[in-house]
Amino acid sequence: MKVVRFHAPGDVRFEDAPEPEAGPGEVKIRVRNCSTCGTDVKISKFGHHHIHPPRVMGHEIAGEIVEVGDGVEGWAPGDRVQVIAAIPCGECAECRRGRMTICPNQVSMGYHFEGGFAQYMVVPREVLKVDGLNRIPDGVSFAEASVAEPLACALNAQNLARVGDGDDVVVIGSGPIGCLHVRLARARGAARVFLVELSRQRLEMAAELVKPDAAICAGETDPVEEILKLTDGRGADVIITAAASGKAQEQAIQMAARQGRISFFGGLPKDDPTITCDSNLVHYRELMIVGANGSSPAHNAEALELVASGAVPVADLITHRLPLESAIDAFGIVARGEAIKVTIEP
Ligand SMILES: [Zn+2]
Ligand SMILES: [Zn+2]
């Protein structure tokens, strides 16, 4: 079968690999869609300390079961499934408390296990053990189902930042994750959602799709001033930074309303992880700053339901569909910001 495999930083190959078989406790799928995201670009350029090459990449996975290993119950060939990306252990102190996104023993598809940029893939028993294989609801396509994983990550962040009724929400960064955050915030009852982005071109492409109440180009105007103007000086109830930018995080703190919640959704570069935070703003305004690290199996299941019910449409966010041999080109499209969501159809 054909796969897209990481060999070394800057060395990702479209090549042949033996077709895997489902061992005991495992399920084999025919991958129908595996979507790309910024993480794939990062891995292809820099590698990752959890990836021991060669490794099939890809973690936003949807497909069809073709083989069920010994001892697996409840699944059959032909079932349409979505696979979680981050796999918690299900047993540690955090997992037992239901905090599966911060499991210290977390392993991941496309990192520790062969990923979805392949015609076939084995779903490891670690995924099945924590209920990480989800049935795709009727009416949801494989392509849409592959976007459930990033949507699940957005859902985790908005739960932690308590996005809800009547909130003025700012999303900084208009990539696929930013677009999902705008849609999800609306579904959760936000009063207004403002989108902030450095690049005018990327901002316009996203704004046309997700129609924020205001689209602010941070490359042309000061987003803090703009948000204060739009909120009569009050600031925003929730700010989500969906960009790997320390400056965006600093601006997020400055544009928060009293008791505002700030989600540092996007991480910062490892060699530059420090920001300046006016601690007195946090103190006097009772701000809450929260992180967000991936998603749990339950978030993935809920994300599929949000897509199925129409609460969070994702079909129109998939702007590019490419065959497996074009996956490496797809990373370039993602890196240059020319697309919202690029999905690979192996
Ligand atoms: Zn991803
Ligand atoms: Zn755990």
Automatic annotation (TrEMBL):
Family the UniProt entry places it in: Belongs to the zinc-containing alcohol dehydrogenase family.
Keywords: Metal-binding, Oxidoreductase, Zinc
Cofactor: Zn(2+)
Single GO term (MF): zinc ion binding
SUPFAM superfamilies referenced in this protein's UniProt entry, alphabetically: GroES-like, NAD(P)-binding Rossmann-fold domains
The UniProt record lists the keyword Metal-binding: yes
Domain of life: Bacteria
Name of the featured protein: Alcohol dehydrogenase
InterPro entries the record matches: ADH-like_C, ADH-like_N, ADH_Zn_CS, ER, GroES-like_sf, NAD(P)-bd_dom_sf, Zn_alcohol_dh
Signal peptide segment: none
A Pfam cross-reference name: ADH_N
Residue ranges of every copy of the Enoyl reductase (ER) domain listed in the record: 7-344
